Amino acid sequence: MLVLAIETSCDETAVAVYDSQRGLVAHRLYSQVALHAAFGGVVPELASRDHVRKLLPLMEAALADAGLTQDQLDGVAYTAGPGLIGALLVGAAVARSYAFARGLPAVGVHHLEGHLLAPMLEADPPLYPFVALLVSGGHTLLAQVEGLGRYQILGSTLDDAAGEAFDKTAKAMGLPYPGGPALAVLAESGRSDRFDFPRPMLDRPGLDFSFSGLKTAVVTTLRQLQQGGIILDEQTRADVASSFQQAVVETLAAKCVRALKQTGTRTLVVAGGVGANRVLRARLTAMGTQLGFTVRYPRPEFCTDNAAMIAYVGCQRLMAGEQDDLSIRAVARWPMDSLKAPEMKIVSSI
Ligand code: KG4
Ligand code: ZN
């Protein structure tokens, strides 16, 4: 089955083509990061308008990359939520209408399900079951993944997502947008043990996270340093960044180990934009070697938003016989635990 997929849930316009036999055959992405940089964050209306401008040419380019014509497609998948509603509506309207016009089945995919299953795009995919840590700008959660649509949420953030904490802290430190990667770069030349920032919720049982207090601790420290007459030179700023990053990394790593122990699972999958963080990767890999679990990551470009992960999930669901009615489905909020495994439809032929 050949599936064309569209992702427009936030500030990336992405299109991919996935073949159930050959795997991923093409993927294209246009990032709006430069468009939103001047505003220090994503401006939803500008995001929607830019998706309108970029989507159709990107679909043509992805098909050309794949060496395919439209007639060869068997289905269409699109991100139906969660995300920015205007941005989602662009992708959903184009995908659903395109499928209707071409007489193809369409399926709306959950964006986080895409992130969770992104490692399945790799040549050596992890085997089910695994524990997944999803750390993005909008979400932070731990889930036990038993198979397609079979997820048990083990814990999630009670306030800010890990990426959001990176972005807000970076903004408070005057770093350029997007803040997370910029903070990680600054942290490279800093000392991680100079400031003792809190490791939120580690002293409590359970697998939930809370990151908003950590950002406040950084802001308070910066203020105290300035009031104490300490010049915020580049080294001090790097030390703050590194100490903050260390607090996030240690908190995430400790909860991952807890989740693996609780579920008796030996494979950890890390997905979402913060999964690109090098210190987090190094820490988890070292803990895996020490404690006897394997850590798997999607390749960095599939850690952040992309259509390849939507194409993979869409293809699996369409192959299982799932397809949407003719409505254009876009939902800003869509709880992940409402997802279900597709019911296998047995098609009999005489
Ligand atoms: O998954 P993603 O592309 O978008 C969402 O669906 O949210 O994740 C983006 C988030 C942003 O908050 C960004 O600052 C963060 O991932 N991020 C990083 C790094 N690269 C991206 N955070 C820390 N270190 C990085 N290297
Ligand atoms: Zn995402």
Summarize the structure.
The chain has 350 residues and is an alpha/beta fold. The protein is 43% helix and 18% strand.
- The figure for the number of domains is 2
CATH class of the largest domain: Alpha Beta
Uncertain ranges = none
Strand content: 15-25%
Oligomer class: single chain
Going by CATH, the architecture of the largest domain would be: 2-Layer Sandwich
For the termini, the CA-CA separation is 22 Å
Q: In the CATH scheme, what's the topology name of the largest domain?
A: Nucleotidyltransferase, domain 5
Number of helices: 11
Tell me the helix content. 40-55%
SSE layout and pairing:
Elements: E1 2-7, E2 12-19, E3 23-31, H1 33-37, H2 44-66, E4 75-81, H3 85-102, E5 106-110, H4 111-117, E6 130-135, E7 140-147, E8 150-156, H5 162-172, H6 179-187, H7 212-227, H8 234-263, E9 267-271, H9 278-291, E10 294-296, H10 300-303, H11 308-319
Parallel strand pairs: 1-4, 4-5, 6-9, 9-10
Antiparallel strand pairs: 1-2, 2-3, 6-7, 7-8
The structure holds 5'-O-[(R)-(carboxyoxy)(hydroxy)phosphoryl]adenosine and zinc ion.
5'-O-[(R)-(carboxyoxy)(hydroxy)phosphoryl]adenosine binds at residues 10, 136-138, 163, 166-167, 178-181, 184, 272-274, 276-277, 304-305.
Care to describe what's here?
- Helices cover 43% and strands 18% of the residues.
- By secondary structure, it is an alpha/beta fold.
- The chain folds into 2 domains: 2-116 and 303-338, ATPase, nucleotide binding domain (Nucleotidyltransferase, domain 5), CATH 3.30.420.40; 126-297, ATPase, nucleotide binding domain (Nucleotidyltransferase, domain 5), CATH 3.30.420.
- The strands form 2 sheets. The protein has a 5-stranded mixed sheet, sandwiched between helices. The protein has a 5-stranded mixed sheet with strand order 8-7-6-9-10, sandwiched between helices.
- It is globular.
- It binds 5'-O-[(R)-(carboxyoxy)(hydroxy)phosphoryl]adenosine and zinc ion (ZN).
- 5'-O-[(R)-(carboxyoxy)(hydroxy)phosphoryl]adenosine (KG4) is lined by residues 10, 136-138, 163, 166-167, 178-181, 184, 272-274, 276-277, 304-305.
